[in-house]
Specification:
alpha/beta; 6-stranded parallel sheet; 10 strands; binds iron/sulfur cluster
Length: 466
């Protein structure tokens, strides 16, 4: 059993290294990413101007999320109570399988043939589209970036901008191939093509699925933030609205949105406020003309309580998925979102994936970092991301997930470096040969360790002789 697990771990980490090596050498990929992240970098400082004290705002947002996560059990129950009062139904799903079963059950009851979906990373996490397809239900992504990715048969590349790695020419070629439109179409014309197709789907669809950026416990509502209006249409046109949301998206009060919305907008895209911000408190009420007949909120755990029970890792549940840490990460910018082979990429993905999906299979992501700390620097809610990457490494060693050779190598390193006499033995050349031979696996993707010709003691003595 142990052997099988080890082999699987090698498979995921080897795939990561293989994909990363190809992407890191792909200069065209780098050009597109630098172009798009360059536009993001130019916009963010303008968004930040709206805060009188940005540092304080981020601190407050962190405190707010701290409170929500520390009292998560109570907040979730309060949400359920308040949301149910207006006819909404809450479903608790511990795993992907439970969430999918519930969604498929509802779709079956509603005789659903077509489903419209707005952008939601949590539905990517449970591979909802594949499950719907297997059950004969057409699922249409209605966010333009997600629609492009769906047409191309690719998962999102980035948690905020799913098609960030595609140029406008790439999209025109894709539309030409899949929809038969001329390759000369401009971005505006391409958007019009997608708009026309999607509009018809909203009318056809029996069920609409959205995620939620926030769950609000005091009023029993969910809040959705978007720039295209597609989420609003997905939750109001079809007769049934299903929300799939991770339990960590909790905020205690409606008033908290006053802090969270501008932060999410600025750190996500550089906007002061995102174009459409919708609060949904339940299905259509008797005196209302618009909205679905039924509304379900699926509260998904799927490993989040593993993180919650770990006091050090708990902080990663504060994440509001603004994507700023991805845009700032030198590793992400070189290897791109798809190399990670996970739903959540970049620094936050490397922190949470090993805890959500298993340290054995995904611990390698925590090593894919220079620990420069840029992610922590830019995080909208001040999560100590680089420290959590280190914590993952620490926990994986504690769990014995390192090879015998690696453990021995570090043991010898520790013994030698704690004894000055041993460090002073042998020439620099000899030590280079010995150490680089000993750390063969470790330095497979790193440059050789290089000892100086003289030891520290020798240099120290020489300095004081002068
Ligand atoms: S960890 Fe911070 S910067 Fe990264 S996506 Fe989450 S909130 Fe944004």
């Amino acid at each position: 059993m142990k052997l099988k697990k080890q082999a699987k771990m090698t498979e995921t980490s080897q795939s990561f290294i293989a994909k990363s090596s190809i992407k890191a050498a792909d200069l065209e990929h780098r050009r597109k990413i630098n172009f798009n992240i360059g536009k993001y970098n130019a916009a963010v400082p303008k968004g930040k101007e709206q805060f009188a004290d940005l540092h304080l705002a981020r601190e407050r947002a962190k405190n707010l999320k701290w409170r929500a996560i520390e009292t998560l059990d109570q907040q979730l129950e309060e949400f359920e109570l308040n949301f149910s009062k207006r006819g909404g139904k809450v479903i608790w799903a511990e795993t992907t399988e439970q969430a999918l079963d519930e969604i498929l059950k509802i779709c079956k009851e509603k005789n659903c043939k077509t489903l419209v979906k707005s952008k939601s990373m949590v539905t990517e996490e449970i591979h909802l589209n594949e499950a719907l397809e297997k059950n004969g239900i057409e699922s249409i992504e209605t966010d333009l970036g997600e629609y492009i990715q769906q047409l191309d048969g690719e998962p999102p590349y980035h948690i905020v901008t799913p098609a960030m790695h595609k140029s406008k020419e790439d999209v025109a070629r894709l539309f030409n191939k899949k929809l038969g439109t001329p390759v000369t179409l401009t971005p505006t014309e391409l958007t019009q093509v997608a708009r026309k197709i999607l509009r018809e789907k909203y009318v056809e669809a029996e069920v609409g699925v959205t995620g939620a950026n926030f769950i609000i416990s005091d009023i029993g509502a969910i809040a959705v933030t978007e720039n295209e209006g597609n989420a609003r249409l997905s939750c109001s046109f079809p007769k049934t609205h299903i929300v799939v949301v991770g339990i960590e998206k909790m905020i205690p009060t409606l008033a908290d949105l006053g802090m969270m919305w501008p932060l999410l907008a600025t750190y996500g895209t550089g906007q002061k406020i995102t174009v459409y911000n919708t609060i949904v408190t339940g299905p259509r009420q008797e005196n209302e003309t618009d909205g679905p007949d039924e509304m379900y909120v699926i509260l998904l755990d799927n490993g989040r309580t593993n993180i919650l029970q770990n006091p050090k890792q708990r902080e990663s549940l504060y994440c509001i998925r603004c994507g700023a840490c991805l845009n700032a990460c030198p590793v992400y910018k070189n290897i791109g979102g798809h190399s990670y082979g996970t739903t959540y990429s970049g620094p936050i993905g490397s922190v949470i994936t090993p805890n959500l999906k298993g340290m054995e299979d995904f611990k390698h992501l925590s090593y894919a970092s220079s620990l420069c700390g840029n992610c922590t620097e830019v995080c909208s809610v001040k999560i100590n991301l680089h420290e959590l990457l280190l914590e993952n490494r620490h926990e994986s060693v504690e769990e014995g997930l390192t090879s015998f050779t690696e453990r021995m190598a570090w043991k010898i390193w520790k013994t030698a470096s704690m004894r000055r006499g041993l460090m002073n033995m042998g020439s620099g050349n000899l030590k280079n040969k010995l150490v680089n031979g000993l750390f063969k696996g470790w330095k497979e993707h790193r440059s050789n360790l290089d000892f100086s010709a003289k030891t520290f003691n020798q240099m120290w003595k020489e300095r004081f002789k002068k």
